[in-house]
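Extended Data, panel c. Modelled sequence:
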Amino acid sequence: MSSIRLVLQDPVIVRDFLRTRSPFETAKTALFFYFVITQSLKLCRHVQARGITDTLRDSWTWSYRQVLLLALKVPSVQKEVQQQMDQARLDIEGQLVPQGVDVSRHLVLPDEGKSMGWIIAEMEKMDGELGPHADWKHGKLSGAVYHGGEDLSKVIVAAFERYTVSNPLHPDVFPAVRKMEAEIVSMCLRMYNNPDGAGTMTSGGTESIVMAIKTYRDWAREVKGITEPEMIVPVTAHAAFDKGAAYMKVKLHLIPVDPVTRKVNIKRVRRAINRNTILLVGSAVNFPDGNQDDIVVLGELAAKHNIGLHVDCCLGSFIVPFLEKAGLSDGEDGGAKYKLSPFDFRVRGVTSISCDTHKYGFAPKGSSVIMYRDAALRRHQYYVTPYWTGGVYASPSLSGSRPGALIAGTWAAMQYMGSDGYLKSCREIVSCARTIANTITNSIPELYVLGSPPASVVAFGSKSPEVNVHEVGDAMSKRGWHLNALSGPAAVHIACTRLTLPLVDTFIADLRDSVQAAKLTPSGKGTMVRLYGLGNSSAVGPEMVSELATMFLDTLYKA
């Protein structure tokens, strides 16, 4: 090494070496070394973030998957797989697409317009085409429908009617809609303890999250000169972060969570931070199991490295901000379980928060709010171009035109509920969730609760080798419940809503019966068991599940 160093330090030797090479060869060599160095740095950052063990495991899994995918191209194997997939497609269509001679299909515009009476009658007919199990009003749902009551629905419909044709793209034409949107953002900012902050409305939690990623990408490029951005996200964070990273071309590092607390592994987060990191993410609470990450420690890391920290409160929305006032934030058993840790803008380092008004805010579907610590950060969310031949174009989020009726409906819902209404709702829903969690812990020995969920979601797994928790989920489906299956670990969850309140005893009784059914007479044929069994069956299992999911999406558009 010392001799090489001496050679490189001798200008005569270096000059003579360069003289013997053409400019083209010198450029090729420089480009080669540039490529090697940059790719080596990327590899080092990747290994630093994922760890040597996980990197080797991922590499082995990828290689094994490629071999299996190649094997699946053998004609005989391909034919058998295709037959199974065709049958799966028929099964999906049978569940989603109504069949029979009595089913009307409206595939072309009618020659003449229909009356309101005909339209309402046809809607009623379509509502019943898949049978009574498709009626959400029975209340046996996990989340899905965040219903604030019939009176509130009437208020929202009245707001819709008044502002049906409105579009916030034209604030001079619809000044009231502009004012209502600004007031919605202001109310949410105060709810999350940042009255001097900034924000916008979006079409839902996914758009709020995608907008946050876009904001940090553009901020980091302008302020820090980062052109290959990376973000660090818990594996329990919403899939919208994966989606946003794919859309915005940001490298995603998924960090495991503690198997007991279900909080993101802070040691792994700290190790994953590098000069290209633009964003850390934490949930309060996460979708899969309803637990929250350690936002305070994540905030300290974000502040130390001058990077963003986004707290996803899309599901926590109008629940977690009211837990303290409801007397529920300290949890139970002296804080040993269900305790809520600090999560909002009072935490140093938190720079943005997403909150879905259309969940526990009981606003109409298609409304969410993305909030920032200050207006300067929000500017990076905007899209502005002065070069369009149609004039200067500027929009705060992905959409150009937006339904002002949704904004009006959201504003109306928030005015109708008020703080007292949301406080009461929080107390009732969280008490319901804790009743379910405590019952599982204390009197259903085959199951356990994942983590210590402080809010409205309870996820349960199986601690008995005799019970497949997805069999339990399928048995609950036979009893009319629409629950969510989870993986990593295998589990099932319920997001309690106001619809759950009168059914909590029914849920517990059905859950006990379903556990016994899964233990004594497992069918192995339910949707959860088959789908998640396929996903874990081999290295290509996820590809098979992805194909099934794609079939599902295709079926949504089969008239």
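The longest helix spans residues 404-443. This feature is highlighted in the accompanying rendering.
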